Amino acid sequence: MDSICIVTDNSAQFANTSFRGQTITKIVQLKPSLRNKVFKSKEKHILSSLPEFASSDLDPHLLAPSVDEFRQLFSRLGKQYNEIIGIFLSSHLSDCYQNARKANMTLRGGPKIQIIDSQTATIGLGMMVQKAAETVFNHGSLTDVERSVGSLMHRTYVLLCTPNLSYMCNNGFVDHAQATVGEMLGVLPIFTMEDGQLIPVEKKRNPRHIIMHFQEFIDEFDHFEHIALVQSINANNNDSRLIRDHVHDNFPNTPFTEHALNLPLATLFGPSATALIIIESNSED
Length: 285
Known about the structure:
Blueprint: E1 2-9, E2 25-28, E3 31-34, E4 37-38, H1 44-48, E5 61-63, H2 67-77, E6 81-88, H3 96-106, E7 112-117, H4 122-137, H5 142-153, E8 156-161, H6 165-170, H7 176-185, E9 188-194, E10 197-204, H8 207-218, E11 224-231, H9 237-250, E12 256-260, H10 263-269, E13 274-280
Parallel strand pairs: 1-2, 1-6, 6-7, 11-12
Antiparallel strand pairs: 3-4, 3-5, 8-9, 8-13, 9-10, 11-13
């Protein structure tokens, strides 16, 4: 029987398409619900057809696997692995973490299971999963994995900008009045993530100001492990180039990757959402 496997959800995005320990990484599906119909997250035509504004009949929501589905998954994986580590999208954005915990509490006599709230999203979550998998690949213990993921969690910073406030409203992140007024005025709000929660920090009026804010945020750090830009469905290539050039000119040795917004995240934040993820270097390195 193998030792440890990693379980995450499909909102995670990875800086590297292949990494050590990938074969022991299992991915559960967060499924978008639109107009009361549940879709598979791999249906790309759904992503490209999402409207800018989420009308009441669209009603976008992201559905996590149920407690029973997690119970069945853990029981099945327990036949192959001694230990299971679940690392999921922030518990403030999805029920995935909570449902996995509830499933774990109902199991008796199976594998040892540790459930971790990543308190982040997209590349931040992907980097934690990748770090966990690589630690296991290098014969690390469950304690080693928890320590490495915890270190990364405290060094991960996210900025999110979206004009699609009606999506945010449907998912409970802003109230109806804020969403209505914000979309009517064309406001571009910027949120940061603190302890997994979305916190509004700025309001801008045009994309150029968003790029400047992202550049200024990058400049607040001295040392990076990684910088990633998650671009909206209809991304402006010039905007992404400005961020890319800023990183390459000022931090030439920093790994920088660009990623397309995936369907789970578009369901939560809207198709025009853009995110900047910064992983600060470990001071111990």
